[in-house]
Every structure is written in structure tokens, then in C-alpha cells.
Amino acid sequence: MHSILSTPPPCPPFFITFSFFISDIILAFIRTTQQRFRIAIVYRDEFPENLEKVMKKSDFPALDVFICTADLYKEPPMSLVSTVLSVMAYDYPTEKISVYVSDDGGSQLTLFACMEATKFASHWLPFCRKNNIVDRSPKAYFASNHSWCSDAEKIKVSYHSYGIVLVVFSPQ
Question: Lower Cβ count inside 10 Å, N or C end of the chain?
């Protein structure tokens, strides 16, 4: 029994440590050479105008958009309204798109803003489709330097009147 305990180990600890070190170096080299191919930049081009050549608008998939908001002070209702209206104005079949607003703060003002947005949408959405507007957010459209027509002035006055109503009802 004494002779079993006193025999030296078959391989000194130095060789075990050295073999782990060499294997780590080899694995690190393999990992870095493989990552070069995995991190390669991929350039993709989108051609949305070709989508209608491939499929009919009635075959488009249903699209659900969730807009989350929580704080009236960090996310003003007019920004929410502008976001909702820009999503509703997508060049997408209206029966296939659904917009959901989740208000974690549970504010009555957010509900009121969305109700006012639906009223304004009856003017804004046809205006966007009729004039083929690219900036579909009312906030972005009215901030840019576009050529104005009489319809655009009416829409702008209507948009700002909804903004004034929301400011009047907003918390101080």
C-alpha cells in the first residue's frame, strides 16, 4: 500500500498545463480565422417597387405594428400621433395592416390623442396617397421644405389644431 502512494505521477503537472496552453492557442487561432468570415459585411438592396411584380397586393401578409409608450413627458402625445399616422400611411393594403398602441402609463391623454389621430387620419391618409408623399409622418412632412398646395395648407392647419387641443389637455 505504501508503494502505490509514493510512486510519481505518470505525467508531471507541467506537461498537462503546457498541453492545455497549446490547445488554447490552437483553438484561439481557429476561432479568429473563422470569425473573419462570420463578421463579413453583407450589402443588401431593397427594391419594394418590384414586390408588386412578384405578388398581388391581396397576397401580401398581414402586418401588425406595436407602438409602446409609457411616459407622457418623455414621449409626448404629438410624437405618438405622428408615429401612428406614419405607420397608418404605409403604402400597404389597409385591410392587411393593424396598428396597436400599448400605453404602460395608462394615460387618458394617450387615449384621447389616438382618438384625435383617427379623426386627423381621415384627412392625412388620402392626402398622402393622392400626392404620393414619401415623408409620411406629419411632423417630418411639415418640418421639411416641400412645395405647398392649398390642400397641404389645410392639412397643416388641421394638424396644428389637433396639436393645440392635445397641449391644452396635457398635464402641467
Answer: C
Over residues 38-53, the pLDDT tens digits come to: 777 778 888 878 888 8
123 Cβ contact partners less than 8 Å away, ≥ 6 residues apart: 154, 155, 158
Q: What is the pLDDT of residues 77-94, one digit of tens each?
A: 888 888 888 888 888 888
**Which DSSP string do the residues of 36-96 spell out, in sequence order?**
HHHS--------GGGHHHHS-GGGSPPEEEEEEE--TTTS-HHHHHHHHHHHHTSSS-GGG
d(CA 152, CA 154): 5
* pTM for this predicted structure: 0.63
Return phi, psi of residue 102, to 5°.
Answer: -110, 115
Return all residues near 57 (Cβ < 8 A) that are at least 6 apart.
93
Distance CA 2, CA 143 (A): 91
Q: Grid coordinates in use for 12?
A: 508531471
